[in-house]
Structures are given as structure tokens and as C-alpha cells.
Amino acid sequence: MMAKSEILPLTGLRFFAALYVFLFHMHIRWPLSDNTYIKNILEQGAIGMSLFFILSGFVLAYRYSNSNTTYRSYLINRFSRIYPIYAFTAIATLPWIGVDFGSGSAIDTTTALTKIALLFIANILVIQAWFPQMFSYWNDGASWSISVEVFCYFLLPFILPKLTNIDNKRLFILSAACVAFSAMIGVSAALFDDPANKVFYSIPIFRLPEFIVGICACIFFLRGNKKFCGPAIQIFIILTVAVYLCVVGSKMPLYVGHNWIIVPSIAFLLISFSVGNSALAKLLSSRIIVWLGKISYCFYSLQFLIIVPLVKHHDSVVQHYSALNNPKILMVCALLILVGASALAHHFIEEPARIWINKRYQTKRVAKPENSQTNTPALLSIPTKN
Predict the structure, then answer these.
(1) Which of 1, 183, 185, 210 has a C-alpha 20 to 30 A away from that of 287?
(2) Residue 293 lies in a domain
(3) What range defines the domain where residue 348 resides?
(4) What is the pTM of this model?
């Protein structure tokens, strides 16, 4: 079930996280169901972002525990994983940058050009999540989560060694504190008259606790804490979360208001699926699901390119293909196109670029004289504490 740097069920799970977000984005534009309970689940699809952040923490902690990887090598690896597709989608979505030049006066033009410059700087540096006021421009409403991931990536080498050196009791307390903090944002918005806004939903520092929970969950897994990981418990947790979302659904604001139940449930399921002895874990490890998981980053990143043109040209499309007036048929067609586009992007852009970047910059660093005294410190050489 496990490769050296991959846990197959978790690779497969990535696709379902991306799929949930896609269904959410389709549903809020073209409702997929009138059923109250199903609507409540679909309308909370943004909690798929929590799954992404927790899963990233878990997978990276698994990969880099007991690793002699240098900080430089680690950053190159992360860059090669995310930036090629990120850059591709940024370029492809330039027609929707959304900056209005107004009347064309000198003031309006200067203002517009300044906006464009700031958008370019934020997107090139992948820091747009720190500026939610930009989310209605360009691809920032979709790419903000990549910015959160980048922030977490930079911190992992400093967080992971600290966490692997604390005992299970303190690790559990830290995990509980992170769950509580991540839930407080949405809960406070529900309880107080002046609700929190998207600043608290998207700014990376407020999503960092979810990433840390993923790291803690992985450490528990690596230490052999695998009790109560059977298939019955998996099904119980999934059904409990589903029923909770059916009933509570949109009553909690900002999506992260559900984190009190969503975050620990995800953390447990990641540990349980990683054990790999259940039917669900085996399903997630199947060849087709793992392949979908491998293209899931492209799947998530390219959604904008499918959905936004549909929004703009929906009436024209429906006029020519009346069947697409049915939201479910429209969703299936969009899904198939997105999967196809994601497969092409993965095999012809993402993977070749990743391999080239690593070959170009990783091997260059390794190829040094044997008597060289210049060494990059291995920041990720981490013993797993039992």
C-alpha cells in the first residue's frame, strides 16, 4: 500500500477533494439538486480546502520524516511540483484579469496599471492569499489556496523537527488546540453580530493550524498509533460528517465553522486510510483512482478555465445544445472536459516540467567534488520518536 514517498489511498483521496470543490463551484452557479439535504452538502464543498491543507501536512511529513533532504533540495522539489501548472493557469487566465480602465483618463489608466502591477507581483511571488481584496481579479479566487500551500511549505522544515521531538500527549494537545483555533473563526462569526469576512478564511496564517494537524496525524501514524482504524469506524465517521452537513450545512458561516468536526475527522481518516486494510483504502488505491489523484492538482487548477467561460457563454451554449440546460448534464460534460484537460496538462506540462526542473537544479547541486567542504545543512534529518 505504501511506496517510499507515497501512500496510495491518500493519492486517490486527493481527487475526491478536488472533485468536491468542483461540484461546489458548479452547484453555486447551476444548482445540481433541489433536495435540502443534498444542497447542504454541495454548498459546503469549500471544506474540501481543509482536506487539501491537512492532507498536504500529512503527506509531506510522511515523505520527509527520517530524511536527509536539504532545505534547498526540498524547496526545489516543491517548486517543481506546483509552479509549472500554476504559471500555466495564470497565463491562460490573463483574459479574465478583470481590471477596468474606466474612462481611459490618465488617472483611471494609472490606477488600472497599478492594479495590474500589484496583481502580477502577488501572483508571481504566490502571495495573493494575503490580499483577499484581489480575489475578484484574475485567477486569485481559485489560486489563493496555492498561496496558502506555499506558505506552509516554507514552514514545514522548521515545524516538523519540533513536532517529532514531543511526546504523544503534548502532540495530542497541540492537535486539539489547532482544531479549536481553526474552528473559532467560523464559530465566532456565527455567534457574534459582526461576522468575520474572507480575510480570516483565506489568509495563510489562519489555515496553518489545519496543515499542522496533518503533520501531527502523520507523526501519530508513524509512531504506530493505529487503534480504532478499522473499516467500521471509517464508515461511521464518514456517515456522521455527511449527516452533520445535511442538517447543519450552510447554517455555519465561512465553511471553516465546520472545522470542529471536519478537521479531526479528516485527520483520523488519513491515519486510517494509510493503514490500508479496508475496502475503502483499497478502492482509493485502485489504478484509476490513483491516476485521478495524480492529475488532481491540474484538475483543481484548471477548473477556472472551464467554469468561467461557461458562465460567460452559458446562454449561447444552451441555445446550441439544449440538453446542457440541465445542470446535471452540464456538470457531467464539464467534468469530462476537465478530466481530459487535466490529463493532458499533467502528462505534457506538469510532469515534464517537474522532471526538467529537478534534473536541472537538483543534480547540479549533487555533482560536487568528493573533497568539497561546502555542504548544505540537512534540515529534514528527523528521527521518528516512538
Answers:
(1) 210
(2) yes
(3) 2-366
(4) 0.91
